[in-house]
UniProtKB/TrEMBL annotation:
The active site is at 300 (proton acceptor). Keywords: Flavoprotein, FMN, Oxidoreductase. The lineage of its organism: Bacteria, Bacillati, Actinomycetota, Actinomycetes, Micromonosporales. Residues 31-404 form the FMN hydroxy acid dehydrogenase domain. This is L-lactate dehydrogenase (Cytochrome). Pfam families: FMN_dh. Belongs to the FMN-dependent alpha-hydroxy acid dehydrogenase family. PROSITE patterns: FMN_HYDROXY_ACID_DH_1 (PS00557), FMN_HYDROXY_ACID_DH_2 (PS51349). FMN binds at residues 110-112, 139, 158, 186, 276, 298, 354-355. Glyoxylate binds at residues 57, 160, 195, 300, 303. Its cofactor is FMN.
Length: 404
């Protein structure tokens, strides 16, 4: 009965416009990427331009996401102790990593699903890293094969040990033949962590075309067009990739690996060997004794075991245990250049970053990754200058501490 009293009218465009969500033209997006002043700005752009499942895969962590939150909270506890009346007119952010020069104490971490974030994927990340002068690490779970990433720049290859050792050995040989200089073995993934955002988003490879994803196409048409008009999204180093990520990890990765497998890999790989995923000083000493050239103190970005130890807090103990026999890197929660400076001051040789550059990739492809690296480089240089340090080597516990 009440409907007879409702007056109808033709909607005006000014009323419809707020309801229509169409991606901005590419040239405007590039301008916004260039104007981004922080990694947080790139994160906001990434969230706007990327489907929810892809964004959540990068942004999320395991279970209650406490480990990731604690990593960020640890960096919030950092206290810098600047020295004044120092000449910082010419600050040098360079260092050496595994005997090679790097423009920053920074390594681009291995990440899976990379072409899901942006169709340029690993090619964009590797090119930006090479132009900046920092190493890029291709993941076993990458969406391009090692042979496809030939080119300039320092390239490392990340490895998960598979149940099939012959296939693992073949993959290692392919990485060496393709020019990858260092091998990074990840040891904190015997089984997949419980990443609840991925479960709730129904994340699969390739993405399923459900009613939800069809609706999402209308909100992110450019992303979907690039996905559907470029080679199928897959894990390039695996023969079978269909299904949920957790199921794939548990099907392919070997949960029985031990120190003997590390010794086997040391015999197979003749270049620098890095072990990633160490959070215990005794474990760090053990893997160095077994031949590791570098150790990455890492909680896998909080994406494996929740409530695990916080990398920045255990870093000094690991550095002491290693005793200069291997380089020590830090991974987990690094989102700005001041974080990098803090970690180096507490003993790390360099930091690995993942989310920081993936936000840039989602925001604007190679331009976005380059912008993320530019932001991090400017952060590092400015923080060094304000600390009264002209070089990375001048950082130490006298300049950085963790507040209780």
């Amino acid at each position: 009965m009440g409907e007879r009293h409702v007056r109808r009218q033709v909607p005006r465009w000014s009323e419809l416009r707020p309801l229509v969500r169409v991606e901005v033209p590419a040239w405007r997006r590039r301008a916004r990427v260039r104007r981004a002043a922080s990694i947080a700005d790139l994160r906001s752009l990434a969230r706007r331009h990327t489907p929810r499942a892809a964004f959540d895969y990068v942004d999320g962590a395991a279970e209650g996401e406490l480990s990731h939150a604690r990593s960020r909270a640890a960096f919030a506890r950092v206290e810098f102790r600047p020295r004044v009346l120092r000449d910082v007119s010419d600050v040098d952010t360079g260092t050496t990593l595994l005997g090679r020069p790097a423009a920053l104490p920074l390594v681009l971490a291995p990440t899976g699903f990379t072409r899901m974030m942006h169709h340029e994927g690993e090619h964009a990340v590797a090119a930006a890293a090479a132009a900046t002068g920092v190493p890029y690490t291709l993941s076993t779970m990458g969406t391009v094969a090692p042979e496809e990433l030939a080119g300039s720049g320092e390239r490392w290859f990340q490895l998960y040990l598979w149940r099939d050792r012959a296939a693992t050995k073949d993959l290692v040989a392919r990485a060496a033949a393709a020019g990858f200089r260092a091998l990074m073995l990840t040891v904190d993934t015997p089984v997949s962590g419980s990443r609840l955002r991925d479960v709730r988003d129904g994340l699969t490879i390739p993405p399923n075309l459900t009613l939800r994803t069809l609706v999402d196409m209308g909100r992110h048409p450019s992303w979907w067009w690039h996905l559907l008009s470029t080679p199928p999204l897959r894990f390039a180093s695996l023969d079978s990739t269909d299904g949920a990520l957790a199921d794939l990890v548990d099907r392919v990765f070997d949960p029985s690996i031990t120190l003997a497998d590390l010794a086997w890999l040391r015999d197979v790989w003749t270049g620098p060997l890095i072990v990633k995923g160490v959070l215990d000083a005794a474990d760090a000493r053990t893997v160095v004794d077994a031949g590791a050239d570098a150790v990455v103190v890492s909680n896998h970005g909080g994406r494996q075991l929740d409530r695990v130890a916080t990398p920045l807090e255990v870093l000094p103990a690991v550095v002491e245990a290693v005793g200069g026999r291997a380089e020590v890197y830090l991974d987990g929660g690094v989102l700005d250049g001041a974080d990098v400076v803090a970690a180096v001051g507490l003993g790390a040789r360099a930091c690995l970053v993942g989310r920081a550059y993936l936000y840039g990739l989602m925001a604007g492809g190679q331009d976005g990754v380059t912008r993320a690296l530019d932001i991090l480089r400017a952060d590092v240089r400015r923080t060094l200058a304000l600390l009264g340090a002209r070089t990375i080597d001048q950082l130490g516990p006298d300049r950085v501490r963790l507040r209780p």
